[in-house]
Write a structure and sequence with these properties.
12 helices, single chain, two-stranded antiparallel sheet
Length: about 350
Amino acid sequence: MIRTFLTVTLSGTLAFTANAATNDERTQAYIDQLTSMGFPAPKENQLVHIPPTMADLDEADDIHPEVKKVIRKGYDLFTNTQQLRGENVFNNMNCSSCHLGEGRMPFSAPIWPAAVTLPGYRGKNGHVNNLEERIAGCFTYSMNGKPLEYGSDNMLALSAYHQWLATGVAMYPKQPIYGRGFPAPERPAELSYANGEKLYQDNCAVCHAEDGSGLRVDGQTVFPAPWGDMSNNWGAGIVRVFTAAGFIKNNMPLGQPNSLTDQEAWDIAFFMDSQERPQDPRYTGDVKETLEKYGPTFHKHSMYGQVREHDGKVLADHDNTGEKPFLKPDAVRPRNFE
């Protein structure tokens, strides 16, 4: 249903108003279908943007053929990032593993907002990031890999794809963006590891395997690994329990968004993020020291360095980097203008 929905919609951008008569008919149809899938309607004056499709690109007469080639290359890298396996990617992830619907799906961290809100300050690394650095961060953490070189052909292509999806949106929009990120439901008073494990086996293991290893066919990832050596590392955004809960609630099981209760989404996220994965590239050599350094800005929301109650294991107390033959890529560095 998600794939069909994203394919048939047309591109467009406007600020939603309470008066439906002022909204473009196709945008209203887009909103109606999202609400029928359990997503909230836009709030007053939220920015609603429908990113263009690859079919729109084919039909565009105002884009130079060479630019189209670059955008198509970016799309190809985004949906099949495994082609960079062993060079920039050292796990079983594609960009589209987390950003569903080719990076276009609202409530699945659609990627076009990055193109119009960056450069911007990012608390995770404490400085102003541009679009290329934001993409580099995904390779560093979510791909457990080595970022594309800044200014390289592949970085240009991925950046172009992000920017093309934002066609028609003004830079630094004043309105809040509808469907941005992985908005999490309110956190329940208590989270249950045991219930999360049962719910994972009942709802998730059919695709992602009982041991969280995911599914690969003929060397290509069909369903990504939610934990383990072939998953994201301890620095990836989805290790924050609220981020994982938001992703699960809005997108899982695949094709059944919003079918889990808030408690169920949080419990699955708590279970999933309580499993081991490769070390955070910012690791200092001591898990407690790393937690003290990055807890205030990032790991206060994760299980990093925490004691798992049912077996007493200290999570992330290791130097395992998965298949990656290094810990920290050069791209992970501070920046200031002092």
